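Quick start: read one record
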Amino acid sequence: MTEITTEKQIETQNSGFEIAKKRYRIGAFLIDFFIYWLIGMIIGLFFGTPNDEGGFSFNGLPAFGMFLIGFFLWPISEGIWGQTIGKRFLDLKVVTNEFKPIGIGQAFGRFFLGFIDYIFLIGLIIAANNKQNKRIGDLAANTIVVRTKKPTHNNV
C-alpha cells in the first residue's frame, strides 16, 4: 500500500497538481450552489410563483430551464472543462486518477452519486477518511479533484 501511495505522491508532484483540500472543495460547491440559487431567484422573479417560504415555485418551462441550468453548471461543465465556475474560481480541476481530463460519462457519474454524498454528509465522512479526499462519486468514477499549482516565480 505504501508503494502505491508513494507512486501517487511522486506522480502528483510531477504532474503540476496537488490533491485539493476538503475546504477548497466545499468552498467551490458553495460558490456553485450560490450561483444556481441566484439564477433561480432571478428566474423566479419573472416566471415563478411566490411560495410561503420566501422562494418561488416553478412549473413547466421555467422548471425545465432550471433543470438544464443545473446540468450545465455541474456535470456538463466538468465533463467539458474539468471545472465548474466555483472550481475555476478556486483553481480546482477534476481529472482522472491518471491526471488526464475526464469525460462526460465520468462527470455524470460524479454528479448523480453526489446526491448520495450529500445525504447525512456521507461524502464528507468518506473524504475525511481518504488520503486523496475522494467522495463516493470520485471513487466510483475513478476521478480526483486537484488544485493547480500557481507558478512560484515571475517571468516578467
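The mean pLDDT is 86.
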